[in-house]
Amino acid sequence: MGAWATLLVWGTSKSWSWLDPVLWLLMALQTFLFTGLFITAHDAMHGTVSHRPAMNRWVGRFCLWGFAFNSWSRMLPEHHRHHRFVGTDQDPDFGPPRFFLWFWKFITYYVRWTQVLLCALLFNFLKAMGVDPASMIQFYILPSILGLLQLFYFGTYRPHLSDPSTGRVPDNEHRSRSMAANHFWAFVTCYFFGYHWEHHEVPGIPWWQLYRTKQNTIHEILDNQS
Description:
It is built from ten helices and no strands. It has 226 residues and is an all-alpha fold. The chain has one domain (2-179). The mean pLDDT is 90.
């Protein structure tokens, strides 16, 4: 959260050339941090950010608002409905098997016109305050869109689809699959949420411990937590 906010404020305080390779590296980093912002909100939905329920709620709200003004009160029940009805018609995160059709269903279900309006108001307010509009596109608008694509592809589409040609979901109790153990790739793609069957098996394991599910049994992890 701190890295995301720092890079956002610092990046938008300057003017950048689109030809500057450093800009593209920083935009890639900010995209990764936007993804992490949502992953933190996701963990707050499962109560793993803090043992204090109020802290979970406030951290979750802050992260979702930072990620294009998403609503905590809307996202929380929908995410738990995803866990209860994963891969079924009652799953709000499940859609047609083709990537762009699924993604379109996903964003039209979750994105509200109030979010678009708030983003537009923020953009114009900062522009009136002297912030370079190009830097807002470079450090907020594009990274948030790319972060959403990263989340959807690596955190929803791939884990919950076993065959794009037929639309079949994985045939197990969680209708989720898990990538082969590769902790570096799992981290940089989606904060270990490629280990998705494990997340559905024990949602109370936070993202920074999910990698351990590939080198220990889930029961060992739970015993260590207790």
